[in-house]
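Incident log, structure service

09:12 report received: a user says their structure output differs between two submissions of the same chain.
09:20 pulled the input from the user's history:
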Amino acid sequence: MHEAYREVSLVVEEMARKLQSGGDLKTFKETFALWGKHLLYHAQVEDEYMTGPIKDSQPARNNEAEHENLGKQARSFTSFLRGGEKAALEDSLSYILGFEEQQHKELEARKQVVEELLEGEIGEGAVSTRTRRHLYSRIVALRVAEFDHFDNEETFVFPVIRELMDEQEQLNVVKHLLFDETSDNSSWIFDWLTGALGQKEQKLLLGLVNRLNI
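09:34 re-ran on a clean worker, output below:
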């Protein structure tokens, strides 16, 4: 999923770059809206089904001082995992999850900045070169925040998930990431993802879905 989202974010960024020289914004708005919809749903599901249950299992210690020390804690976290130190894992958990939540909030804030620009400064009339530059810079900032977030998850959060969640719990996370039970079209994420992946990845995805018992 991360790889597919990375690819579409680069497409949106390239569209924004080209728009600096002019052109219609209609297609860009539609593509950005879909990208944003995916990011928002993805973050919400992770908060509820992936990191939420883990966070509830230990004391919440997400104050400002801990966030300031997050970088130091994260750098040493990998060594904790290598050593199999469960106590160290539990002790570092709040730092990791606090940063995860913080990054989700940053993604939503940067997405909202772009949406406000699209709704406010960009109307039916001609769009200034300055506004198009601002749009591009905000898209780049959102894409960088997204890439940083994915890197953080893959490096620090996923090892925690593997350590603290059994296979069925992990599959439950996957189920909610791929299928939106609140939507009339619950497979809108899975359908899009299937089309965005190569044949090898599609085969892996279908094999995973077959294990979800849905």
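09:41 both user submissions now match this output. Likely a transient worker issue. Closing.
09:42 reviewer note: Residues 166-214 form one domain. The chain has two domains: 2-165, 166-214.
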